[in-house]
Amino acid sequence: MSQIAINTSQNVNINFTTASVGERMLAFIIDLLIRVAYVVIVLYLFFNILDLGYILNGLDTWSVMAVYLILTFPTYIYPVVLESLMEGQTPGKKLMKIRVVKIDGYQASFGDYMIRWVFRLVDVSFAGAVGLISMIVSKNNQRLGDIASGTAVISLKNNINISHTILENIHEDYIPSFPQVIALSDNDMRIIKDNYTKAVRTDDRQIINKLSNKIKSILKLEIDPTKMTERQFINVIIKDYNYYTGKDN
Q: Keyword Transmembrane on this protein (predicted)?
């Protein structure tokens, strides 16, 4: 598996391991099985439980195809909808511990997932050979949809210890200070913690200042600098996020 350096909005490079072709194929197969199961269940309900097969009698071919399209429509939008709701994951990706991310370090948007979904029509052509070849020959194991949307699929399995993740040790009696942190996503917090950890290691006060101001701006917070330093503020934000989202190790 190769490494990909994602440049965050604070101009800090974070190295991730790209998901292997095998991991992505297994995730695809899992999602495919889920969609097939959905189709089997829906058709069984339609024809056997609800006994609505008579509706198709006398319909022309196009009308019959339209009925089947309506019944199976969720399977077609499955990837784009779930990736949008699960922050770059589908059940298959979640099980394989891989995720879609933007190469520029920002959270992928619905538009990015939509582009990936549209290009899927090309990637799956010739029995999926187009997408497979693209992943094999591209630098970051990207299929055409990834290249077009500026995304990559990374592995989440390379988090060796708690300092490399969004997880933070908090005591059971910990009292949070900023409930506004629930507006942040896992990807936001990962970027915050990675930036902060590197800035502390190099004593880069400029990055710490920018990161602190960015968090305050996003969450609309005003902090008295005489009561809490920027480092203390960011530490509290990280711990509060873990508290409210129930992250544990």
A: yes
Where in the sequence is the domain holding 49, given as residue range(s)? 3-155
Residue where the block lists tokens 């609309």: 220
> Is 146 in the same domain as 171?
no
Tens of pLDDT, residue by residue over 125-180, are 877 889 889 998 988 889 999 999 999 998 877 544 334 444 556 677 788 889 88
Instruction: Determine contact, residues 83/115, Cβ cutoff 8 Å.
Output: no
Sign of torsion, CA 127 130 131 134?
A: positive
Please indicate, yes or no, whether residues 72 and 150 belong to a single structural domain of this protein: yes
CA–CA separation, 149 and 160 (whole Å)? 29
* β-sheet bridge partners, residue 6: 14
The residue among 188, 176, 157, 194 whose CA lies nearest residue 243 is 176
Q: Rounded to whole angstroms, how far apart are CA atoms 55 and 43?
A: 13
Q: What angle do CA 10, 83, 237 make, to 5 degrees?
A: 40
